[in-house]
Write a structure and sequence with these properties.
Elements lengths: L5 H30 L4 H22 L16 E3 L6 E5 L5 E6 L1 H7 L3 H16 L1
Antiparallel strand pairs: 1-2, 2-3
The structure holds zinc ion.
Zinc ion binds next to loops.
Length: 130
């Protein structure tokens, strides 16, 4: 049996180590806040936390929308190539087509059951690999 390659070790260990690193960062921030409440690091921490809260608020109250502007003609006429997948875009007013472009945001707006669509896509991908 061959030993696993280093890249697979990293892929295996990262999900185990990353939570500890993040927890350590939170612990370090709490230690700085309690030990040095008036230091510049504290104010930088408040600034970063404020930016995170602003970002959360902005993305909650103004979520992303599908960009339907065609890269060639500029009209709001992009559609998904196939309503059964989230990949592939085409323009209804010109000849623009891109089978590799993501139509995820369009599918998100159009589909009521996005989970079923994703499940069907994954199943089709698994079937094509067999
Ligand atoms: Zn177009």
């Amino acid at each position: 049996m061959n030993p696993p390659r280093p890249a697979s070790w990293i892929a295996f260990l990262l999900p185990l180590i990353l939570p500890l690193i993040l927890l350590g960062a939170v612990g370090l921030a709490a230690a700085i806040l309690t030990l040095r409440p008036d230091s510049i690091l504290t104010w930088v921490g408040y600034g970063v936390a404020g930016l995170v809260l602003l970002w959360l608020g902005a993305t909650t109250f103004w979520p992303a929308r599908a960009d339907r502007a065609c890269p060639e003609c500029g009209q709001e006429s992009l559609e998904r190539m196939d309503p059964k997948t989230t990949m592939g875009l085409l323009c209804t007013l010109c000849t623009y087509q891109d089978p590799q472009a993501s139509g995820w945001f369009l599918a998100e707006e159009e589909e009521t059951d996005l989970e079923d669509l994703v499940r069907q896509q994954r199943q089709a991908l698994r079937d094509s690999r067999r």
